[in-house]
C-alpha cells in the first residue's frame, strides 16, 4: 500500500484524462493530425513519465498540433527504467511480488 502513494498524482491525472476521453473527446470526433490522438498521447506520456513530465510532454504535443502541421505517427518514447505495471483501465500500480 505504501508503494502506491507516490503514484497518486499520476493516477489522479490519468483519471482526469480518462474522463476527458470518455466525454469531451468523443464530441470532437477524429480531428487530430497525429496518431495516436493528443489525448491518447497524454495518457501514454503520464503513464510512462509521471504527472509533471507527462503533462509537459502532452502540452508540447498539443502545441505542435495545428492546421499546418504535417502530422503522422508520434508515439510516446518509453521511459528507459519504467518499473510499474498497468491495470486494464490504464492506471499505474507497483509491480507485484510473486
Automatic annotation (TrEMBL):
InterPro entries: Membr_insert_effic_factor_YidD. It is a peripheral membrane protein. The keyword Membrane applies. It is found in: Cell membrane. It comes from the Bacteria. Its main location: membrane. Pfam families: YidD (PF01809). The keyword Iron does not apply. Coiled coil: none annotated. Keywords: Cell membrane, Membrane. SMART domains: Haemolytic. HAMAP family: UPF0161_YidD. Belongs to the UPF0161 family. Could be involved in insertion of integral membrane proteins into the membrane. This is Putative membrane protein insertion efficiency factor.
